[in-house]
Amino acid sequence: MTPESLLGYGLNFREAAGTEMYMVGFLHYKVYMSASSRLLPFFQKTAKTLSFRPFIELTAHKFGDATPETHNLYRGTLPDDLGRSLRASLSPGPHLDYLNHQMGSRALVELDKLLEGSQINGQRRAIPLLAWSRYTVVEATSYAIYGEKHPFVKRETVDAFWEWQNYLVSHLMGLDITGKGYALREKVFKEYIKYCQKLPDDASHLMSEHQRVLRSAGVSDTDKAKQASIFTIASFANSAPTLYWTTMEIYSRPDLLAEVRSDLEAYAIRGSKEKGFVLDVAALKARCALIVSVINETQRTRQINSSFRKVLSDTVLDGKYLLKKGNFIQVPGDVIHSERAFWGDTAGEFNPHRFIKREGGQPSSASGFIAFGFAPYTCPARNFATTELLILVALMVVRADISLVRGKWSSYMGAPVNTSELSTVPSPKTDVEVHVQVREEWAGEWSLQTGESGEN
């Protein structure tokens, strides 16, 4: 067993140990499990000795198939150089504005396609919601980062990517004995290698800078393309299930659906059927607190996977926990997000209003919300990912009614999840089929006003 095999088991260990820090022993190392949000600031203070960097090196090797030469570069300054490049491209400013604009324009196309194809010969068509969420996130994100002729233009490449995700844990442990997962990965690599031969003019600054940093470090053309594919594991695999579950959470609650729609219609949408409708993304973020809260609460209640650190040298945490060099730290997201001492007695319940700041009070603090990791290793794409989810959910909620093809909502909300993935929010093992119906009062041409990210 390795640290990776502990993913999703944090709650069980916490209940057994009954303390805020406990240890799980293995043959040659230990995993220190943190079960309290109180300790998060101490991890930040000791970031030089409790580091995420070894896992960047690990994923470059295990997922990106890095050659020994490239793998060795990740032991030097390359992770820092790539990190600076990512932050520069994904922080509020013109580069993020471009990504948001491109992503939003493709999101509109995918919603139009969904609504236009919701019926066949007058009969409502059954739509697999998870499959649609996955395809839409891949399309919108790829269009933004890579341009129109992105590596996932072929549907079989999209399918190969999602099948590959089921083998990530096996690849970390070197247990893909049949090689099926590697064959699926190779299909994705093939498209990246072809794409990276000459980046198109509409490739984003994020992509061009990523390739520039790798090229400057001496990484080969083939390895540059393979390493580029790793970014999609974090971006696609986390956003798609979050979109799926957020949609399920809203549509399964008629009162919440009506409240979210009321907010959006009042503050973020203008126009008419005759002149067209506009979704104001800046207003969506600033004035529609409920939809933001619902997305956050979905991540809080659905997250199962963990953040990891490696102990680079003996470290005393909070003056009382001795962490020995060569071992690992695991911070399980499900444990932190269900901690009653932080979230209150309703920690185990879905409260769509939890993250809304009330007059004279405070919202649930971001210090205990680690859907995008915790400082100093937070996800650099969190602003882009959140904007993408907001746009897709808002457009869906206002423009469409969704009903189940069969069964009740409650029977799907607690469905078994796929723990073989490494996404923070897991996908259900079985997709759900829905009927999608256009809301006639909101039928017509739609556009986005994305604004500048610095305004949000």
Write a concise synopsis of the structure shown:
The chain is α+β, with helices and mostly antiparallel strands and 456 residues long.
Written description of the protein model:
The strands form five sheets. This protein has a five-stranded mixed sheet. Strands 6-14-13 form a three-stranded antiparallel sheet. The protein has two domains: 1-53 and 305-336, Uridine Diphospho-n-acetylenolpyruvylglucosamine Reductase, domain 2, CATH 3.30.43.20; 66-303 and 337-455, Orthogonal Bundle (Cytochrome p450). It has helices at 10-17, 40-45, 53-62, 68-73, 78-90, 94-116, 129-146, 155-165, 168-173, 180-196, 205-217, 221-228, 230-251, 254-267, 281-287, 289-302, 333-336, 340-343, 382-399, 410-413, and strands at residues 21-25, 30-34, 50-51, 119-120, 123-124, 127-128, 269-272, 276-280, 306-311, 315-317, 321-323, 328-332, 400-404, 433-438, 446-449. It is 50% helix and 13% strand. The protein is α+β, with helices and mostly antiparallel strands. The termini are far apart. A hairpin with a 4-residue loop joins strand 1 and strand 2 (30-34). Helix 6 (94-116) runs parallel beside helix 19. It is built from 20 helices and 15 strands. The model is unreliable at 1-8 (pLDDT under 50). The protein is globular.
